[in-house]
Amino acid sequence: MDILLLFYILCALAFTLYGMNEISAHLEKLEGGRIERILNKASFNPVKCLALGTGITVAIQSSSALTEVLVGLVNSGIIELSQTIGLLMGSNIGTAFTSWITALSGTDFSFPLLCIAAASGVFMKTFFSKDRVKDAGTILFSFSVLFLGMEFLKSAFASCHAENYTAVIENPVICLLAGAAFTAVIQSSSTSVAVLQAFAVSSGCLSLGSAIPFIMGINIGTCIPAVVSSSGTSRNARRVSAVHLYFNLIGTVAASVLLFVFNSVFRFNLYAEMTNMLDIALVHTIFNMFTSIILIPFSSKLEKLAVMTIRGEDEKPDEEKVAFIDERLLNTPSFAITECRTLTEKMAQLTLESFRTSVEMMTSFDEKAVDRVLSEEDLIDDYEDKLGTYLIKLSGCSLTNEDAASVSKLLHCIGDFERISDHAANLAKISREMHEKKLRFSHAAQIETEILETAVYDILEMSVTAFISNDAELARKVEPLEEVINGLRMELKNRHVRRLQQEKCTTELGFVFSDLLTNLERVSDHCSNIAVCLIQLKDEKFDTHEYITNLKENDKEFQEMRFQYVEKYALPD
């Protein structure tokens, strides 16, 4: 093989691998978020997980990507090891679907398909502005690149006189090791099978007896990158890679034994007839389905085998560790964004619960509740720190406009939730101070502050609900209530001054009262920030100052809602 032919093969391989990766990456962009939400609810039933893993791999066209995501999710403590076993088996079946697509390049339809995919892809990317249409265009164009790479590979292999290596190719051990090594290097079983198909149809010297061990080796090789990348993760995350490797090794041994038995009984010569692209796709599918079907009843045994290999106690992440998201998910940004959103929603709900507890303590003090609020404040700080760092890294990835907007929203809102938790902690400390110093507001002040506290809790609950449901219409109801809360705060300050003048209140209580009002009012300010952020993302030309000014001056609906809130939270005379 001369140097020019080697470069030609490498160029053809680059086209094929690029097409495969682009198809997988943009399919993941289109479906990743939805798939990640499904994964979070994955069943413990191996058969259901098998079907789910098959469907997901067909959808994103990459078993390696799914394996990496599963390692990341287990390492983050989001799903359990037992849930991944069926998914991994299903990914082996799903990845065989790609070999049927690449087999089309061996038919008379390959060139028309190449032209149609290229023209359609370029048209969609050039003349449409929506991200989803552009991504679909990229997928179509990547199919044309994949088919072009396959044509180059067939042309290159046709020139390399493969018949000179027939003795080597017919050695099953060499074929298995070659398939495993090649796949481990390029990290794509689909590309390896495509190369094998191109070699088969071009050389005319690849028999079924050689193709089968090649495919077995490819399945083993696809496990190696995940095994290597899982080093440094939790024990359970490393066990995911171990299960995947054991599953393919055991499947290879079982299939080899069965093949040997059949060959001994029926005496068919696997080396007599040469294979084609469709034969390889069929063998790949049958082998992967066979290994999955025979091993699915032994899912629990595979889990025990992985646990025996990687010894140690299962790590049970506490609440502090939940805020950690594995950086492997950065390779699949839409998966990572969905997980960040899930954790931010937990952060928002925790903030709401913390504020509710701190408000309740103003009327019935509980030292344990104070400690809980302060502990939750530390936890929310940790959420904000880790999520903020992760989201900044995520913003540097290749994102659709929709995903970029989601990252921006999360970055803005986690800071507001963290500040609200700070104010909840301040309120808890105020209640502790009043309890220790035996301070009590007057009856009138108690009634007034309870009305303000109710209004602030309602605006926070509304903001959290709007954030979790991504409801811009509900978010529009926040600003009118925020203005009413500002008015309530001013009126309460004025009434407090009058009580001081009438000597119905002490100076010491006055300082406490002022701190209480300030913290409550600032909670409503952060709720306004969250609501405005949600509304802003609906309109790229949105200006915050202009929006609020127009609301207060020109919006009749705003004035009507404000009037309703004034009546609802009216202070007693």
Would you give an account of this structure?
This protein has 573 residues and is an all-alpha fold. The chain is 80% helix and 0% strand. The protein folds into three domains: 3-309, no CATH class; 318-438, Methane Monooxygenase Hydroxylase, Chain G, domain 1 (Up-down Bundle); 441-573, Methane Monooxygenase Hydroxylase, Chain G, domain 1 (Up-down Bundle). It has helices at 3-40, 46-60, 63-75, 81-103, 110-127, 131-158, 166-169, 172-186, 189-203, 208-221, 224-229, 235-266, 277-295, 299-309, 319-322, 333-360, 367-395, 401-436, 443-469, 472-475, 478-501, 507-536, 544-554, 556-568. The longest helix is centred in the first third of the chain and has 38 residues, at 3-40. The protein is elongated, with a radius of gyration of 31 Å. The termini are far apart.
Considering the chains and any ligands shown, give keywords for the structure.
single chain; 573 residues; mainly alpha; Methane Monooxygenase Hydroxylase, Chain G, domain 1; 3 domains; 24 helices
**Distance between the first and last residues' Cα:** 97 Å
Strand content: under 5%
Secondary-structure element order, N to C: HHHHHHHHHHHHHHHHHHHHHHHH
Shape: elongated
Q: Uncertain runs with pLDDT below 50, 5 residues or more?
A: 317-323
Number of strands: 0
Summed up, the domain count is: 3
Kindly state the mean pLDDT as a whole number?
85
Rg estimate, integer Å = 31 Å
Helical fraction? over 70%
Given helix and strand content, the structural type is mainly alpha
Number of helices, counting only DSSP H or I runs of 4 residues or more: 24
Largest sheet: none
